[in-house]
Amino acid sequence: MKPLVALVNGPNLGRLGKRQPEIYGSQSWDAIFAGLVAAFPELDLEAFQSNHEGALIDFLEAMADRGVYGVVINPGALTHQSYALRDALAALQRPVIEVHLSNIYAREPFRAHSVVAPVAVGQISGLGPLGYRLALQALLDRWRREAGHGGTPGAG
Ligand code: DQA
């Protein structure tokens, strides 16, 4: 069976392609997601976006009950302030990779701190939509290693 991997986007990320394209790029999430599905036939990908913290947590809880293998999450501004989202990610006890389209360390000072990062296995920041792809590759490698199918040592 393919490992179930959740791709989660937080507040304001439903408008990718339209929202400040000079910062977040011109591709819509639908276009990005279609590319990810095509690139990772080995994974059972499920995407979810919400502007609401509680809805994101409800989704993560539902994914836990469904046996999710791992999570790739761009928490948007919740990155910098949501202990509730962080707790939900920690409670999963599954590998989490944090992704940011922009380089959060090169912007306003409040963006340079992530409360989510300590419960993630890794973080990718500043590489645009490629970040999602690299995160999925890291999770796939990890799953293969755990399943005894090899993979890139040290990744994810
Ligand atoms: C973001 C960075 C956050 O600081 C911001 O609030 C976002 C998007 C990114 O992908 O670069 O909404 O997570």
Q: If you had to describe this structure to a student in words, what would you say it looks like?
A:
- There is one protein chain.
- This protein is α/β, with parallel strands linked by helices and 156 residues long.
- Helix content is 35%, strand content 17%.
- The chain has a five-stranded parallel β-sheet with strand order 2-1-3-4-5, sandwiched between helices.
- α3 (53-65) packs parallel to α4 (83-92).
- The longest helix is centred in the C-terminal third of the chain and has 17 residues, at 130-146.
- The model has no long low-confidence stretch (mean pLDDT 95).
- The structure holds 1,3,4-trihydroxy-5-OXO-cyclohexanecarboxylic acid (DQA).
- 1,3,4-trihydroxy-5-OXO-cyclohexanecarboxylic acid is lined by residues 12, 74, 76-77, 79, 100-102, 104, 111.
Keywords:
156 residues, 5-stranded parallel beta sheet, 5 strands, binds 1,3,4-trihydroxy-5-OXO-cyclohexanecarboxylic acid
Biggest sheet features: 5 strands, parallel
- What ligands can be seen in this structure? 1,3,4-trihydroxy-5-OXO-cyclohexanecarboxylic acid
| Percent in helix | 25-40%
Structural class: alpha/beta
Q: How large is the radius of gyration?
A: 15 Å
H/E element order: EHHEHEHEEH
How far apart the termini lie comes to 21 Å
Q: β content, as a range?
A: 15-25%
Indicate the mean pLDDT: 95
Name the strands of the widest sheet in spatial order: 2-1-3-4-5
Work out the oligomeric state of the chains in this entry.
single chain
Low-confidence stretches: none
Principal-axes shape call: globular
